[in-house]
Structure formats: C-alpha cells, structure tokens
Amino acid sequence: MAVILHKDYKVERDDYAAAGKVSSDIKQTLNSIGYDPKVMRRIAVASYESEINMLIHAYGGDITMDIMDDGQVKLVFKDPGPGIPDLEKALTPGFSTASEKARAMGFGAGMGLPNIQRVTDDFDIQSSQDGTTLTLSFRPAK
Amino acid sequence: MTRRSVVSYTLESCIRCMKCIKACPTSALSMENDRVIVDSRRCINCGRCIRSCHNRGILAQGSTLEDIKSYEYTVCMVPGALINHCGSREEVEELFYAIRMLGFDEVVDITDCTARQMEEAQLMADSADDVTFISSFCPVINRLIANRYKVLQESILPVNYDSEIAAKQIRQRLKDKKVGIFNLCECEAKLELAKFPYGNNEYECDHALSLTDMFPRIRKNMQKGRIPVSLCVKGLQSCNPVRIVQKDQYLIADGFDKVCAVLDMAEFGLLNQFRLLILYPCFNGCIGGHMLWGNSFLMTNNIDALSHGKTKGSSDVPFEYVYTEDFLKTDEDTRSFMERTMFFKNVNEELERLPGFDCSACGMQTCRVMAEEIVKGNRKEEDCRVLKTLKEKADDDQRSD
C-alpha cells in the first residue's frame, strides 16, 4: 500500500476566520479526484469536526492527508497542546469543555469526538499535556 | 452524454476583455485563438458570464417563433415568475392575450404545477426522519451539485421541474393532436429543459423560448385584448424565497454565493437538523430570473395583489408525472481512481511553477485551470505571460550586467 497523494496543512492558533478552510480543501481535493461520495461525506464531517477542535480546544496545529493507491484516506491531526485530561469523558456524547467564546459562536455542543469516531473506519487518539494526535482512516466501499 | 451549454459566443462584438472568463463560478470558460470557448461539461448555465459581458458578446438563445409552424396546435406555457411581473389581474390577462398573439393556439399558466412541485417536496421532507433533502426545482442547482457537491447528489429530491409536469399534462390532454409545447423561460438555465434548441430529447417540452427575445413583441401586443386566467396562489408564492410558507425544518436561501455557502455546510453535516433545503441561485428566487426586466423587490409585492380574484388549487396530475430520477444522471469519468489522482497530483506540481496571480492573461480563468491544460498537453508553460515577462526581464538584466 503506497501513498499516491500527500498534503500538509496548518491551523493557526485562534484564527477563527479561517475555520473550515482545511476541511474545504480536503473536500475539494476528494471531489477533484472523483472520490466515492458516500465515503467523502464521512471524511468531510470528520475533518471539519477535527479541524474546529484544534481551533477551539488546542493551540492550532498541523494536519496531513494521505491518499493510498487502494483508495484509503488517512488524516492526521497533530496539535501542540494542552492535551485532553480525561479521554474517556471526551469520548462521551454531550460532554464539553468549550469556552464561552466558542459556544457563543455555535461550537462546542459536546458531540465532536464521539461524532468523529462514529463516522471513521479506524480511529486512534493519543493525548498528553504536550499535545494530541488524532489519526483517522477511511476505506472506500467495496 | 454531455448536455450542451446554453451559453453561446458572438464573435463580432467581443472585445476580449476576459470579464466572462473571470465571472464563471465553475471555470467553464476560456479563451483560445482569440475566441471564448465554453466547456459544456463544466458549465452549469448560471448565466453569470452573460451578465458580466458589457458588449453582448455572450448570449443564451432559445427557439424561434418560426418553430410554431411545424405543429398542428401550439401551446405556450407561462411561468409564475413572469406572471408576478404584472401588477394586477387585468395586466396578467393582457399578457396572456399578448403572448397568444405571437401565434399560439393556447396560453397556459403553470402555477398549479409549480405549487404541486413544492407540495410534493414538502410532503417528502415532512415525512423524513433524518434525511436532509435539497430542492430540485432549479437546473442550475442540480448541475452545481453534480459538478461540485457530489456528496449531496443523493439528497436532491426526485421531483420533476414544474414545466415538465405541466408539459406532460398538456400532452395527455391534447393527445389527439400534433401538439407543440413551448416554454417561455424567465432565465437562461431553463432553456435547457426542452427538446429544442439544445437537443435534450428526454424532456416533454418541445421548445424553450427566451423571454429576452420575446419581450419586445409581447410588449407591442399589450393592451389589445384579454384572456381570462385563474391563478394558483401557492405557485406564485413558490417563485420567491420570502413568500414560501416557512417551517422550522426548512432552510431557504437565495443568491449564488449564499447557496454555495449552504451547500458547503451541508457537506460538512452542519445542517442535519433541517429536512429540506430550498435553494434559489438567483437573488429573490425565480422572480429575480435574469431575463425578467422589472425590479424583483417590487414584483414580490405583486404576489399579494394577484392573489385576489379567481384562483385554483395545485395540479392533481398523477404521481408518475411528478417524480423523476432523470436529472440525477451525470457523466461517468472513464479514468481509473489512480489516473485521476495522479492527474491531480501532477496538476498541483505544475501549479507550483506558475505565478498564482490568476490574472487570466493566458486565456484560462485561474493558474489551476492553466496547470490542468499544461498537464493535458494543450498548453505550455511559455504560454504564461507573467512567466514570459519575468524571464525576458531576467535576460535583459543579464545582458546589461
């Protein structure tokens, strides 16, 4: 299994004006290569949630997308902190730690991580106070 | 098979200003050998290029009145958007008379079919639990989704265009005659929804007429007589986003950029609380159709004035007239997944070498389109005027050193 397309993105800290830009590019890229729309829908939902999470909970971060020759898509969201203190809670639907500012903007309903997990084929999350790395994989329908 | 774009180019008046090329939301236009080329696979018939042109170099043409002669009996369908341009019932009756004077045997108002179309859409949306449907009333939206929002393609309602519902009804009613059904279109996009002039044989409607072409003649015929009409209020209201009966679970948007923003959000799953997205690419809905001449804000008020007097309910045509899957079909890309991805990758690499100014001086709308053409082998890097100038300047500097 080889990577046939790789893309790097950056999410700047507190840059709310750019919210969703990376997910839009991911979506456009998949649209351009004629990716399976059903899987694309799941990727769009997961990438948007994850990107917004980086913005409201972390200090920005890096996103990479790898498209494999068998059609698999792997997304990695890596932020430099502050990390998720209680992962189990964060994966519980409805639990939220979003700031007032973020809630006022309509974010932070507490469905982020559980939603991402629901639409992803392979879900992995590693978190410490030095940062969080979220690795998501999506497989095309057979 | 790719459907032909309704946009055509008239060479004589073109001053090659590139405004049309820059105006296109889907990068369908380019300039080659001093001519504007329209890529029918990309064009969504939104008409932005037509309105950007100051010299009438870009047009959308419909059938001509000559075509009336090919039929034993002819019917002209009038959309609600045009009816809403009349300030009173009397004016509507004059308008219908004026249209009949163009040579038709019968003039039919299709607001009852517009209402039926909206009713079926709302019925489907109201009975859905966790699906978000998208209105199928506008051919521009349907093409836009097929082109740029493939994720949402399965969300488009299987409800046919009002002109098609009406045409099927007319064909059935007059099945003993050789009937020619004409649709008087309020925008360029609807010119596509007929057998002629664009050869889309899957449609029941025979000819699409451009209101821009017909208007001068209709105007001359006004105040000469009247034909009594009975209008469907719900159909008149469906032409305008402000007048549709709103419910919490409907999201209504008009204007091209707003509609794109809504579609983007829908793809990210941010509009799942809605059952129906009613989208009009034209500002103020079909009343803002580009071939209509009046102020769309004033026309909105006409809806109330026209609601008095003889009215009729929505059309009761059978279900098979209303539902269709036809507009969901798109061209299959014959390239493999690997080929498509490698093409995209090569385009990105080529794009790195181009200046990224999107100046259109090469004839392509953006550097990305240019990069695609270079990868396809249709253009060369030297065709980029910015790179060429920079190179010449560098050569000059070297010589003077």
Key structural traits:
heterodimer, A: alpha+beta, Heat Shock Protein 90, 27% strand, globular, B: 401 residues, alpha/beta, 3-methyladenine DNA Glycosylase II, Chain A, domain 3, 3 domains, four-stranded parallel β-sheet, three-stranded parallel β-sheet
Give a verbal description of the structure.
The complex is a heterodimer of chains A (142) and B (401). Chain A has 142 residues and is of the alpha+beta class. Chain A has a single domain (3-138), classed as Heat Shock Protein 90 (2-Layer Sandwich), CATH 3.30.565. Chain A contains five helices and five strands; from the N terminus they run βααββαααββ. In chain A, a hairpin with a 2-residue loop joins β4 (122-128) and β5. In chain A, α1 (21-32) packs antiparallel against α2 (37-57) and α2 packs antiparallel against α5. Chain A is globular and about 40 Å long. Chain A starts with a strand and ends with a strand. In chain B, α4 crosses α8 (211-221), α5 packs across α7 (162-173) and α13 (337-353) packs across α14 (367-376). In chain B, the strands form four sheets. Chain B has a four-stranded parallel β-sheet with strand order 6-5-8-9, sandwiched between helices. A three-stranded parallel β-sheet of chain B has the order 7-11-10, with helices on both faces. Chain B starts with 6 loop residues before the first strand and ends with a helix. Chain B is built from 15 helices and eleven strands. In chain B, β2 (29-32) and β3 (35-38) form a beta hairpin. Chain B has three domains: 1-60, Alpha-Beta Plaits; 65-129 and 157-245 and 285-328, 3-Layer(aba) Sandwich (Rossmann fold); 337-401, Orthogonal Bundle (3-methyladenine DNA Glycosylase II, Chain A, domain 3).
